[in-house]
Amino acid sequence: MILHQILHLSSIFRSAVSTHLRRNIGLSAIVFNKTKELDPVQKLFLDKIREYNTKSKQAGGPVDVGPEFQKDMNESLARLQRAYGEGDLTKFPEFKFEEPNFEETPK
């Protein structure tokens, strides 16, 4: 009887310790990742993305493209306008939804 109670308490204790350790390990991993320095490959990758973002904002579009890219882009836009109609295809469309009328109509 006493052995059964001890085993039951040990399983409860093991479960509580296990949950506590999982939470602490997960939290410490987040803290460790925020404080550690990026490895050289990650740093280089992020630097290149930031550099491209800066160049893209200065150029107002894609960076380091030649006239062939612009020609292909114009042909593609013209083909899409023929297929799908008028409008500026370089901008996201604006949707306008009307509120439905939920009032009861007299019979």
UniProtKB/TrEMBL annotation:
It comes from the Eukaryota. InterPro entries: ATP_synth_f6_mt, ATP_synth_f6_sf_mt. One of its GO terms (cellular component) is mitochondrial inner membrane. GO terms for molecular function: proton transmembrane transporter activity. The keyword Mitochondrion applies. One of its GO terms (biological process) is proton motive force-driven ATP synthesis. It is found in: Mitochondrion; Mitochondrion inner membrane. Keywords: CF(0), Hydrogen ion transport, Ion transport, Membrane, Mitochondrion, Mitochondrion inner membrane, Transport. Component of the ATP synthase complex composed at least of ATP5F1A/subunit alpha, ATP5F1B/subunit beta, ATP5MC1/subunit c (homooctomer), MT-ATP6/subunit a, MT-ATP8/subunit 8, ATP5ME/subunit e, ATP5MF/subunit f, ATP5MG/subunit g, ATP5MK/subunit k, ATP5MJ/subunit j, ATP5F1C/subunit gamma, ATP5F1D/subunit delta, ATP5F1E/subunit epsilon, ATP5PF/subunit F6, ATP5PB/subunit b, ATP5PD/subunit d, ATP5PO/subunit OSCP. Subunit F6, of the mitochondrial membrane ATP synthase complex (F(1)F(0) ATP synthase or Complex V) that produces ATP from ADP in the presence of a proton gradient across the membrane which is generated by electron transport complexes of the respiratory chain. ATP synthase complex consist of a soluble F(1) head domain - the catalytic core - and a membrane F(1) domain - the membrane proton channel. These two domains are linked by a central stalk rotating inside the F(1) region and a stationary peripheral stalk. Mitochondrial membrane ATP synthase (F(1)F(0) ATP synthase or Complex V) produces ATP from ADP in the presence of a proton gradient across the membrane which is generated by electron transport complexes of the respiratory chain. Belongs to the eukaryotic ATPase subunit F6 family. This is ATP synthase-coupling factor 6, mitochondrial. It comes from Aquila chrysaetos chrysaetos. The lineage of its organism: Eukaryota, Metazoa, Chordata, Craniata, Vertebrata. The gene is ATP5PF.
